User: Fold these one by one.
Assistant:
Number 1:
Amino acid sequence: MSSSLPKICQKVKKVPPLRIVVLISGSGTNLQSLIDACQSGQIDGEIVGVISNKADAYGLQRAENHQISTIVLQHQSYSSRDEFDQALQQAIDSFTPELVVLAGFMRILGKQIAQHYHGRMFNIHPSLLPKYPGLHTHQRALEAGDLYHGCSIHFVTAELDGGPLVAQNKFDIEPLDTEESLKQKVQHLEHILYPQVVQLFCSQRLKLESQGATLDGELLQL
Ligand code: GAR
């Protein structure tokens, strides 16, 4: 049987899924949402490795459940932040990823490693940045009497929780909310938002350019 397709169609190649490495420190519920989104086809990517700085992080078990390779790098075993960052960079690069996703990774990264993954590393943070970088974000939102709370995703730079924002999801804080209820609500939104953002990157719509984060070539202003 001969094909009547024009030559140009015959040449279209399927783009291989993007190689993604996920860094975790704990329970890994965001990791799970990304694994599920890769498996369902929502993300055109493959999680090729998971790295944790804690040996008992439950996220490692989640990765193993899906036959994803894992590496544990305990930061206490390194004499300086630079030494840990170098080992971390080596571990990440051993998977040759195109994207690195911080999903509850509770270590501050130095300038050099942030620069190495410039434009190809995301972090998710449980607050509406620039409000409340760092820890205890739910408690701080409650204490401040905020009307809204939520989560943010940004490209990683050397500034703690400070790189260009790419997406936020927010909700009203109710009078009966507690730290625990805010955590649950934030995580629910995170599990929806992170796969969406990762897919925008995989489909090359979301980029970090000299003027900031862009979506379809338009500067994102959050
Ligand atoms: C998430 O809520 C994430 O926003 C937060 O840690 C949690 C990890 O949960 N990240 C940070 O605080 C980073 N500054 P998970 O391990 O269940 O995905």
Number 2:
Amino acid sequence: QNERGSWFSHKAETARPYYYSVYLADHDVKTEITPTERSAYFRFTFPESEDSYVVVDAFDNGSFIRIDKENNTITGYTTKNSGGVPDNFKNYFVMKFDRPFVTAEVWSGDKIIEGKKEVKDNHVGAVLGFRTSKGEKIGVKVSSSFISEEQAWLNLEEIGSKDFNEVKEAARNAWNDVMDKVRVEGGTDEQLRTFYSCLYRSLLFPRKFYEIDKSGNIVHYSPYNGEVKSGYMYTDTGFWDTFRALFPFLNLMYPSVNKEIQEGLANSYKESGFLPEWASPGHRHCMVGNNSASVVADAYLKGCRTEEIELLYEAVLHGANHVHPQVPSTGRLGYEYYNRQGYVPYNVGINENVARTLEYAYNDWTIYTLGKKLDKPASEIDIFKQRANNYKNVYDPKYKLMVGRSDKGEFNPSFKGTDWSRDFCEGNSWHWSFCVFHDPQGLIDLMGGKKEFNHMMDSVFKMPSRLGMDSRGMIHEMREMQVMNMGQYAHGNQPIQHMVYLYNYSGEPWKAQYWLRQVMDRMYTPGPDGYCGDEDNGQTSAWYVFSALGFYPVCPGTDEYIIGAPLFKKATLHFENGNSLVIDAPNNSKKNFYVNSLNVNGTDYTKNYLRHEDLFKGGTIKVHMGNQPNKNRGTKEEDMPYSFSKEQ
Ligand code: CA
């Protein structure tokens, strides 16, 4: 494939959500592709030649291909995968060309198989020859299925008899419909491009893994047990990343999609005995936490409800007290220690123990909160209420930071706050110590009050980014933090992404407003190198989308969005319930990034948070922006957002 590959330039490339084209310079061929949900239309523009070819490559690790010359079609499958699938996994494909082949051969490895029209081997494909005049276009409709070849042909009906331009126009309209739910105005061209690029990325994952059978039923190939089952299935998302802002964003703007995802989660539990933590397409061993609890709870509590909620609740309880026998990041690794001691010790052979403890404590709070909403008895949910305080067990007052603890209760003597050590996950204690989403007030109390807490927060931005770099081999998250030049604020990775908003709990919301604009301006730009780190299934993009609108879901499972500062002069959200919300900040500008006052539907609004239900009612939020902070706004106790400590 290296020898047949062509040089190309990004300058000769067009990339849109609904269309991609590139000029393959070595062969003088323009290639275009436009999609439907499960199919795509390819078009190749050839030079004048007796030898114009299309190569079909079904990949290595087991593939099959068949040529049907009479019908101008190619069918086959690949079994190539990177794990997380049953043994019978196949990705079937079908291709329908718009003209006869002049030559058509199958190949295996690096050899043409003479005289054969089908072949099954480790790595097979086909070479299709055409005679073309200059500028002649060859079209091919392509589809695939995880179920069968027959289903792949059904999926190709998404294109049906449409021509290339009709498919392209339909794809453009489909993306416009989805993206038009969020309309921003009054920014620079660069800000608009950045915003809609982030919105686009937020909407790419998770992906539909389900198909529609010949009777019109929703069906899916189970990546868990290998059977074809009825109902929804989505895949390709890591909840460790996406529970934070991506799923809350779906609950706000696209709840009908998350309803399907939730039903898919119920199917995952039925087919595998666990909710996924990192699905791709089955359970994958990746990252920490038990954040499926957050994804289920936040959806239900925000009104995105399925009839499967009792089963999902059962699944959440199961995940809290089990670990998947083959995939230890599914369920809860170390739950026995956590349940017994209130934390996962650092000296029992479980890495990332502090990170796990902090997330399990938050996950327990979401289980408690969901259980309460479902009227579950105290005898069932009180234990989770109690464990929601477990974050306190890894807090070391000596450092005012979260520190690993041994099974005997001693803090890790080799602790250093800036070390990207194995007690944490892709970060150091300065990144993880603020991961108490459900109880910032409890964390403030631990650190000695608001003044001390704010000092710790300020320190994150002031500490040199070179610290902690020699504690392990460089991972890209470390380099990304360094090059951003924002101290220890590692926005390119997930654990710290909510942190700036915590100034809203500690009486200094203007500092959040300042840093949010810094992060939006410096770490998100529309150029090829304009992205600050891990995109991670839309999480880092959803952070930007929320933050540019002016609020963020610090604690999924509450009904609150914590107020930041809008980026645009005007934003309009069109909700699925038919209501619209305008965020109106006419004097917003590069210099006017502070929120001086807020007015919701005609009433002065002093709180540091907005409620989900209030947003859903629609109306207008007027934001008066200024170039100086209003240090009186949002500082009173009654204006602070939810903290678990205050509930107890
Ligand atoms: Ca990440």
